[in-house]
Design a protein that fits this description.
The structure is a homodimer.
Chain A lengths: L1 E6 L5 H10 L4 E6 L11 H17 L4 E4 L2 H14 L4 E3 H11 L4 E6 L1 H5 L2 H9 L4 E6 L3 H6 L8 H9 L9 E5 L7 H8 L4 E4 H16 L11 E5 L4 H10 L7 E3 L4
Parallel strand pairs in A: 1-2, 1-3, 2-9, 3-4, 5-6, 5-7, 7-8, 9-10
Helix pairs in contact in A: 1-10, 2-3, 4-6, 4-10, 8-9
Chain lengths: ~260, ~260
Amino acid sequence: MKIGIFDSGIGGLTVFKEISKALPSFEIVYLGDTARLPYGIKSKRTIDHYSIKNIDFLKSLDCEIIVIACNTASSYSARLLKKKYKIPIFDVISSGVTAALRLNPKNLGVIGTNSTISSESYIRTIKRKNPKVKVHSKACPIFVPIIEQGLVNQKYYDKIIYENLKFFTNKKIDSLILGCTHYPLIKKNIQSCVGGDVVLIDSASEVAGSLREHLLKHHGNEFKKPDKKRSIFLTDKSEYFQSVVGKIFRKLDFKIKLVDLK
Amino acid sequence: MKIGIFDSGIGGLTVFKEISKALPSFEIVYLGDTARLPYGIKSKRTIDHYSIKNIDFLKSLDCEIIVIACNTASSYSARLLKKKYKIPIFDVISSGVTAALRLNPKNLGVIGTNSTISSESYIRTIKRKNPKVKVHSKACPIFVPIIEQGLVNQKYYDKIIYENLKFFTNKKIDSLILGCTHYPLIKKNIQSCVGGDVVLIDSASEVAGSLREHLLKHHGNEFKKPDKKRSIFLTDKSEYFQSVVGKIFRKLDFKIKLVDLK
């Protein structure tokens, strides 16, 4: 049983890491579409097209289960993809929302890219499951370049993170969904801005949990097998991406392979 | 005589505007590769591939002269493209450098994206023409999201622009090349950071000048013709891009058309 994970770039490696940890005996392939990232500012039409290309590649490597690690692709394309493909597809939004609602929140915050927030996919998914929850959502698109460029601890950037999150000050949120795979990487900064009482929901560990549950139920025998291989493919391997991977993940024990999806 | 301009996205519309103004009697087609932007963090291999796709599209519309408005594509791919195609190709780097050297500088500053600066294409082009000039270059990758997200006049962003340009404080530069099509849009902020004495070289108007010179020499008769059509094509037309175009260009009198280069 091979698991395929895709993301617009390298932020989804947070999801890859969690799933790797939770499921050592499963083979895992990660695909980051670095040649065409970011997805968060592009249209549904374009994201649908890219997501299909990504899954087709993972399927060509015999992945039998897919995880959409990218929030934008989950927002725009998950429904279409689940219909199109006959294999199980997990996405970060469904898992994140399930985890958030388990906490029985009254006021739930969501942050994400422009596309994720303006698609209102989080609001729709939350309201479908519990119409009583008040949802307060805000796009924080500057966080991705700040994280990718390794600027978080440089002068003024902490203030910018705070300015973006000030929106939640009077909303009395009890939990906050980190609706972009990059955000867990600045969890500490976000926590100190919104206050220690607010529970941060990190979809990376949530989707790993949902997937584990599914596999325990349907492929329980595979848990006893020895540790399996991990592979990382990127569609572009510039110096920049390699340095970002280095900045984000101190220990990355896999060789990154280049794949052409053009 | 139809002129084709391409850029990774919408920053190159600064080049389009200058060329439009300088050459009203020429038909002009602009192509912004918004589906795959940004180029500034991607590899030469990927930028070469995208640039070829872009020119093939412009050629399919009968463009007989090409302007590479994107600094990254000019840095990485101009040489390859000029060899591959039999039509005249102008790029922002050659024009920008020619203009800068005309001022006879001793210390010349260059700012650009990561790829433009790390490719050292500006340094090479300058040194080839005048090895005596000292070149001081710095990547300022955070400027593009700041400009695109319309954050320039919001709290702390002026300070971040200043922090990036502090590098030039003791370099005694006499002029500064704005090596990214987005940067002319924050010209005032940059000028106030580096001081009023430093001449800012805006490659948009420089490439328009070089092109006009070439056309006067080879197609002088076409200058007397009536005003011609302008067209703008984008490879992705999300809400975000339309709002950015609106933020950057208050009056844009052309309908934006979508084209699929996948």
